[in-house]
Amino acid sequence: MTSDPMYEHFAHEYADHAESGAYNALYDRPAVLGLAGDVEGKTVLDAACGPGFYARDLFARGAARVIACDVSPTFVEMTRERTGGRAEPHVHDLAEPMDWLADGSVDLAVLALAVHYLDDAVALLRELRRVLAPGGAVVLSTEHPTTKWLRLGGSYFEESVVEESLSDDADWPVRAWRRPLTAICAQFREAGFLIDELLEPLPAPEMADLFPDDYAALQNAPAFIAFRLVPREEHAHA
């Protein structure tokens, strides 16, 4: 585990921002939960659970069990509290194997806005594939590959680490990979997945009144991209 987990020193500020913010509450969460589909009675892994908003909403949608993990101890405690103690949260660095989770033990894995932080995304995706039960899927979201290119310039096809603040108004340092769509999809294939659905989300309608500038921007260009992934061999035999 890292000695100074990313997000840890601004965890409370980020949670306040994400609870009702345009890009979290009205853009990514609806997209991810929409791709998750019917979770009634299912066991869900919320990897990189953050402050617990996805876990909370998964329970609200009928999930029977939500196992959550994050490298930030503060986020893990927030997830426990936000779900009224129903979630089963673990402090865990996704760069390491999830030895505490058995093979085939979850019906769905959710990985929201986190895969771009991993140096070895394929290793994590293989772990998620390992813990999926037959018929299971992974739903993940990440930065749209055009986002950093449009903001930072250079070649769209560049693959490199970018260090910057997550917020224009605060010191929230993050370190994330910049990759083209081809490279992102190649990681899925290398880990043994096929793309069942790809979504470039549109903002929720209520964003138009609450955050009109963000709504207008997201109507013109996506900020995030989301995928529903299924194991390749399982799909071949379907």
Automatic annotation (TrEMBL):
One of the protein's GO biological processes: methylation
Entry keywords, A to Z: Methyltransferase, Transferase
CDD domains: AdoMet_MTases (cd02440)
Pfam families registered for this protein in UniProt: Methyltransf_11
Keyword field contains Methyltransferase: yes
Transmembrane annotation, as ranges: none
Top-level class of the enzyme under EC nomenclature: transferase
Coiled-coil ranges per UniProt: none
Entry's EC annotation: 2.1.1.-
Methyltransferase type domain boundaries: 45-139
Signal peptide residues on this chain, from the entry's feature table: none
Gene Ontology terms for molecular function: methyltransferase activity
Protein name: Class I SAM-dependent methyltransferase
